Amino acid sequence: MAALFSAITFTSCGEETPSAPENDQETTQTDQNTEQDSNGTENDPDASDADSREDMKPMSALDSLNLPAGSAQASIADWIENGSGSQVFILDQVPLDGGDSDELSAEGRAQLDALAAMMIAYPELKMEVQGHTAKAKNAVGAKAKKTLSGARALWVKTKISLRGVDGSQLTSSGYGDEQLLEGVDPEAAEQKRIAVMVSK
Q1: CATH number of the domain residue 194 falls in
Q2: Residue 10: pLDDT above 50?
Q3: Is 44 among the domain residues?
């Protein structure tokens, strides 16, 4: 009887400590799952930081201008971001004709506003305002047209400068009928234009 009691006592004292409850195992698995996203890939803190930095990337100075699609100013903005060297653009809302007191249309003012904003945002840019006319009938007319185109180009340059552009970025020239558009009747009204040559 004593031997049987001893055997029972030894067995009772030798029991192993119960294993961790299943709930603890589930908690561990849950902790592991938090390291994965809904697609089963591990979360990458560096990738999240990169996304945040991308979201915080400064907006281009041109993005806030809301330039009309297909406009001369939109073409200039695209060239500023992607082009190189020099490029000439016709200002379709700024006519050649008009005296010193001539006021621009709302569209013309908006075009010059946009040009000024671009030049201010990119002080490394240079701009030559150009005046062009249709073909003159004789030498006297050619001289007069050159004078006229120069005066109008200077007027437009002044309008841009008054919008806050550094004067060192701007020049103006009157070419008269020296640079006619190819494929266009030399005497057509389309030859009379204000253009800008933008250079980087």
Answers
A1: 3.30.1330.60
A2: no
A3: no
